[in-house]
Sequence to fold (322 residues):
Amino acid sequence: MKPLKILLILLGLSIAFCTYGESLKVIKKIKNSNIINPTQILVNKDRVFVLDRSNENILIFSKVGEFLEMIGGRGESPTEFFIALSISISNEKLFVLDTRKSQIHCFDIKQNKFLSPIKFSKTKYGGSSGQMIASPDGNFYFVNVAMTSDDPILTKRNKDGKPLFSFFPGYPIYQGKNFTVVEEPKTFLNDGVIEWAKNKIYFVYAIKNEVLAFSPGGKLDRKLSLPIPSIEKTVKVITFSDGGFDLERKLNWDMKFRDGKLLVLSWNDKRQSIIFELQNNGKFTEKYRVNESLIGFDVGSNTLYGIEEGDEDSSILLYKLK
Fold:
């Protein structure tokens, strides 16, 4: 075989096995005195909403990163939050899950005002782990906490917050009458992020490279795999002085459905952020890659927005998309 032909074959193979996505560079870094511990970011048309857990508030920016206003804040009034763990946008409304008040705050984006909150009661499987998604049909999906035996991970609630049913058995993280923790790392086996996409509920595990797709009725339709090594067998837990514990790191941090595609934010072993895109054949391919460690993201018309990991010094990063 001629050397040129061999070279062309090798070049073709290298291109075929090159799975890196588009490498993005930061075009703007937002530092704001109110940005302390941001945990979630959502884009809605020309506005960007950032949930900050330190002050239990939501910061609102323009699509180019200009600070516009702040809503919420810690307190007992109807327009304040106590423990705001998750936000979701559906039908031009921003929903805020407040687990301490056991209610979902509702903010009308068009009218720029709070509506009456939605109260919810705990199921027999406990409350929410902090993950919630509002679907276009008016229902809510919660990730459950305090799972024993074969208790389900997910709960569907109607527009009034009433639990309709729970589904998909999780890993038993407690045992016995005294609810003894089986093993600290295993308490995170049921942790994950949910998203609504094409009339399905998607759940991605925090420490496993597995994505599950459910019908609105709770039926498991299919299991998908992310092309990244799982960390469930090597995950480490940090124990705090007050007896609490948390993950040293996660594998999957966030998931969004944008422009007809499901996107999942993951980290590799170099702590680079990789955003995978689900293709029509059921396979995930790498869409974007950034050097910064992001714990949340969303995509606008020509900008990717990310929350950079940091202890009391986090930033909102903007990346230009082609």
